[in-house]
């Protein structure tokens, strides 16, 4: 690219590395971040295993601090590399990024409580950030569109499932009662959802003949209506595929890049775009 | 709208508010009713939780009376706002509406028994009334049509499931017998439905090698035949969508409103209709 | 119909009543038989319930004898109304019909044993006879054709399921072993089928971390591959529907009747057929 | 076939018998091998049943030796019948074939340990060899292609399932905790997968109202998203079928035979091919 930008300042370079994935440095940053996120999830999990935590407590605390410091540096870099830092700070990911770092700092002040571990689990939400990398953007777009198109129908369907559960749950409460574990109507409704969705834990199960008869009805109903969302998604997906392929195959995958506007943080710019479609700010041209 | 109706009598206004959802007053009425219905369901549920009922018994009784009085007023208003009240009273919703109000009045005469709580649970059926609001009428029509079109096939399918369950249930009774919980043929058939629909409670489970072998057969059969209703609904749904889209996209959603004829209670009038398509009576024009 | 048959002999009339369902008498016969079959199934079920059998033992024995005599008479009538009785006697339904009657006669000779009850359960298979009535013949044909067309693919699929179950079952046996209930490889394979088909009884469940990890893999695999038979049946069903509708809508339902050749017992004759398509014998013309 | 090959050397004949299935001798070899493989699987299974192993230990050891010797001979014959034996030895099947034979020889040196039985279970993988026979090659190709085409989408779907499981699993750990069996986050994630896939063992089940509420959400989610892979496979399968049928119906099944090049072991030659499409070596013409 023979663009007429003589030199790039450090903030633009930083922005490119952190927010985009098309350059080698950007890819490296994303991969390191991905490893840090997965490691942080694994450490939260390991800490919850009593036997493991007892033996490796100090290692886990050390690892937690390493990850907290990595996330803290990343958070600060993200703030200083965008022109409108407050927009980032109060965005969904900005809040998640902050919440990812503070639990360990708070644990210095307060004694490490359960609540802080729970807060640390919020780091899981950072996983969504990785989805941006999405080598499979085309595939996931298609899925997302199918689901979006069938949203209204799935809502109707879930509403019907809920009404059926409430009615049959109430009926089962009066038929079975406490001896079988149907201790209250909410519990019965819960059981009914467990049965209708064919999960069937078996911690609560009908024991009276009439209860078993109605349970059989619920099961067959659940077995039958599972066909409805499948049919919906199947049809929508098929019409999505049909409309897409002949006109411009895979164009959603071709047109977009991972650039993020350094001014307004807008995403999904066209591949050759020089200016942000949202605020008109100059985008970072790739070297 | 510059319609030539000089003045509207109170009954027509009342009818518009209660039976329709296109005017602000009608919408407000529906929303209040919706809240009252959901509240009544929640109270029935809460009352069934022993610990909650013990602590908040008087609050629940009071709330029950408030809802009973709201439903009673609504019931009376519905009767006086239609021209043919007996048609409403003996309709499905008329009976449900009546049954929603009487349990509390009966509890004044008789001591509050379980049966009265059960009767109160009938209020759940009022939920269906809300479906009328159906912002998603088009979507639910499509679903209903798909299911209606595939009714005969689903009947054949369910009949096949039933025969398979009866035969395998009887077989399992003779193989497993009482030690595993297969205490009688009806219980075995119940277990077979539980297994075939992939619910699998586990309260009854085969323990003999032969029983486990046949159980595995039943499971694989159930796993395979779940494809049948899905295929049916999927295909019917797709043909429904195909027939509809090219001719007049989404016309079922556009054309209808929620007006109800004040004379004959017919529903689903066209959006600009001035007269009932069923009896020719003047409809309430919207302001 | 102005057919030139002067009079019909009693055997032809009997054949028409017993084997066909197009005449009023034939329909009546089928309905009575249907009731008798369902009653016999219900009685076998009730007899298996200990408490019920204790109280109503003599009633059940009496009812069994009534049904046995009805089935015996039907069996004899079927034999004398066809021209080639041996063909009927050694056909699938002939054997089932005979087996439906003999248990009670045998119980006169031997003491009533479990085995005889099991034999009586064979009457269930008579239910298939009723399917002939099939008001929904068109629908069930379509289903049967879809399944037949996708037979080879479903076979491949089930074979894959079996191989996966055997391999993962063996793996789980070595990982979990006896403490978790994986007492032998066949039991592990059984558990694997229970899990893969998403039935999940829970009588056997992994307790080691590695076992739970592999179990999670099996579940996700099972959850994913359930899509395969559904997709197959769905596609076959759709192609069946497509091929059928435009050419001659519902012709399979129009063309056939329930006549059965009195000579060779061939079924599925065309509606106006005068001679058997199989042996050339004159069919019973309907009055 | 009037081919001009005067005589066939023993190695070519051996190659034809072992690697192909179009000649009577080749078919016989495959059938014997199939029986030996299934027998070896059955013996591994039977040996894992304690009661059976106690009574028939010596028979099982004898049978194991017979199968080991059959497999050893087969392995040697396979090596000497191909021109490039090392290519076979280090191929996937070559290694599996070797691993199928060595456990018994090792048991002569070391005492028979669990690990050796586990190794013997690797023979199961030999089952895949039989798939080559594949009378249903066309059907399985179609399935494999559908799955391959929807690979990226299924990957996205499984990734979404995993993220949902990790997030909800962590949430459930903090809500339910140890009393209900949610002893650590990995166990909670395991439970979440069990629930989301509608397996529902019931060994771990929520007991708090909030936990049951979230469990109900997970179930309905799982019930809904099962539609996604089904829709994907269904649509892909349908497009595979559409593309295939009109152009050249079933040509994949017609064109191929089971010949394997004696020089380079390439498979899937055309039915009338005289030379290997891969290395140009002369193929064994069928008598």
TrEMBL record, chains A, B, C, D:
Gene Ontology process terms (BP): action potential
SUPFAM superfamilies tied to this protein: Voltage-gated potassium channels
Gene3D superfamilies membership: 1.10.287.70, Voltage-gated potassium channels. Chain C
Transmembrane segments: 28-46, 58-82, 102-122, 154-175, 213-232
Keyword annotations from UniProtKB, A to Z: Ion channel, Ion transport, Membrane, Potassium, Potassium channel, Potassium transport, Transmembrane, Transmembrane helix, Transport, Voltage-gated channel
Residue span, Ion transport domain: 27-242
InterPro entries the UniProt entry points to: Ion_trans_dom, VG_K_chnl, Volt_channel_dom_sf
Recorded GO CC terms: voltage-gated potassium channel complex
Membrane topology term: Multi-pass membrane protein
GO MF annotation terms: voltage-gated potassium channel activity
UniProt KW Transport keyword: yes
Localization of this protein: Membrane
Keyword Cell inner membrane attached: no
Name this polypeptide is given: Voltage-gated potassium channel
């Amino acid at each position: 690219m023979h663009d007429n930008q003589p030199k790039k300042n450090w903030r633009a370079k930083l922005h490119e590395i952190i927010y985009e994935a098309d350059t080698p440095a950007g890819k490296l940053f994303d991969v390191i971040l991905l490893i840090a996120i997965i490691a942080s999830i694994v450490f939260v999990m390991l800490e919850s295993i009593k036997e493991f935590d007892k033996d490796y407590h100090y290692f886990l605390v050390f690892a937690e601090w390493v990850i907290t410091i990595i996330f803290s540096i990343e958070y600060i870099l993200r703030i200083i590399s965008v022109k409108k830092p407050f927009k980032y700070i109060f965005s969904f990911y900005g809040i998640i990024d902050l919440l990812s770092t503070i639990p360990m700092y708070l644990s210095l002040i307060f004694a490490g409580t359960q609540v802080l571990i729970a807060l640390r689990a919020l780091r899981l939400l950072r996983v969504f950030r990785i989805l941006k990398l999405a080598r499979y953007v085309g595939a996931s777009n298609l899925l997302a569109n199918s689901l979006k198109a069938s949203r209204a129908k799935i809502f109707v369907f879930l509403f019907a499932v809920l009404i059926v559960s409430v009615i049959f749950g109430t009926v089962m409460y009066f038929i079975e009662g406490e001896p079988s574990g149907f201790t209250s109507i909410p519990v019965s409704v819960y059981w009914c959802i467990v049965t209708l969705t064919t999960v069937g834990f078996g911690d609560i199960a009908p024991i009276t003949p009439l209860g078993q008869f109605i349970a059989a009805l619920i099961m067959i109903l659940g077995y039958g209506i599972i066909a409805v969302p499948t049919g919906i998604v199947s049809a929508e997906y098929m019409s999505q595929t049909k409309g897409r392929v002949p006109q411009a195959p895979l164009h959603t995958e071709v047109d977009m890049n991972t650039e993020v506007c350094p001014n307004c943080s807008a995403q999904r710019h066209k591949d050759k775009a020089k200016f942000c479609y949202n605020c008109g700010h100059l985008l970072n041209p790739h070297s």
